[in-house]
Fold:
Amino acid sequence: MSQFLTGAGVALITPFLKNNEVDFKALENIVENQVKGDIDYLVALGTTAETPTLTSQEKLDVVSLIKEKSAGLPVVVGMGGNDTRTIINQINQFNFEGVSSLLIVTPYYNKPSQEGMFNHYVEIAKACPVPIILYNVPSRTGVNLEAETVVRLAETSDKFVAVKEASGIMSQITKIAKYTPDNFSVISGDDVLALPIISIGGSGVISVAANALPGKLSSMIHLVLDGKYNEARKLHFEMIDMFQLLFKEGNPGGVKALMNIQGTIENELRSPLYKISEKTYNEIRESFRKLK
Structure:
């Protein structure tokens, strides 16, 4: 498996001020907390970052700050869309200095076939100068990147080094782990499934919860990777209620609420996303009280 993709990655949020501008000071503090919390790598401009609502300049500024404050941790940048040519143009114009890998989500809305997605990724790989993490999240994109297609891509080009699997289909994830080359990483895209996915050969997680709980999350992942399942399971059980609450009304509304409770950020999202209900906010507050 890809060494730098082993362990706990964090899908960083984008904090906003009350006037809805990006809160770069808060983002700086968040990144520094990840470094202190023993997180292994940082993921910028993913789903959790509310990337579709960011301007082109904001995206550049967010990535620049994350690279600057990463303290040497690998930085993965999310990129993707439903027009292959547009993504290739973005890659050709992108500054890859300090970027370890791209996280490329499956095309959304136009629902390509498996062959369409295969060709989409192969064309992107030809243009991309860094390794690629495939990102499968069918609940958001409306299309599932099937195990056979992932295996085919992994065997076609060394540029494909991992898949972030957020389908929740354990049989599919198991087939990917079984049939992909040994140097290909299977990464959980779901905090709840991180432990079971690692148990079948996964390399770790790209976590939402780590934004607020980097120390606990990274400890759990490192324990299970070291084969210390009893200790890892204890931490998993401690956090399971929180994991579920964070997604009760959508991501990143839940984790932003938790970070607001911690005093880290304003509880602000960009439309069309909206802050979670007072009821769920209070449930997260109570769950956090028990965690502490």
Q: What stands out?
A: The two ends are 34 Å apart (CA to CA). DSSP finds twelve helices and eight strands in the chain.
